[in-house]
Amino acid sequence: MGNLSLYTTRAVILMDSEGNRLVAKYFTRGQTVQNYKTLKEQQKFESGLFTKTRKSNSEVVMYDGQTVLFKYINDVYFYLIGNPEENELLLGAILNGLTEAISQLLSFNIDKRSILDNLDMVVLALDEALDDGIALETDPNAIAANVSKRGVDTIDVSLSNLNEQTVMDAYKLAKERLNLALLR
Description:
The protein is α+β, with helices and mostly antiparallel strands. It has six helices and seven strands, in the order E-E-H-E-E-E-H-H-H-E-E-H-H. Helix 2 packs across helix 5 (about 140-150) and helix 4 crosses helix 5. The longest helix is centred in the C-terminal third of the chain and has 30 residues, at about 155-184.
């Protein structure tokens, strides 16, 4: 048995159908070799990866000594890069959970425009699923629920509660005055 580690993922990359980066998150913690430190190295890796996978029929490839799982939905490529000895089923569960959660958050409309328009929710979904390369959650419903909770603006919620309280307080006060007037 090889080295056991919680650090399963080296990177998550979302690209459009032309190979342009939409979102990329590289994880360096827990890695023995620090690959792709600079933006130039990352772009070179991404362009080579896109060239290799754009016409591939499989969902798992080995590229640059790493296990790469990818999924193509509409005009967006989702890539999950893992350690070379990592279990593909675990990586597949992470990728499927992430893509399903993003699909739920974007009302089942995954395309380049909706990802760019809702970039905050996409990045939050990435953060909910992975932390420094450690898989935290693979259930798409849990990921989407956690992102939705964070997405609610707390100021608006407190103001709406305040408005509801004042309406309820006014109703109670009016009811009490009406009861007092009827008793007299």
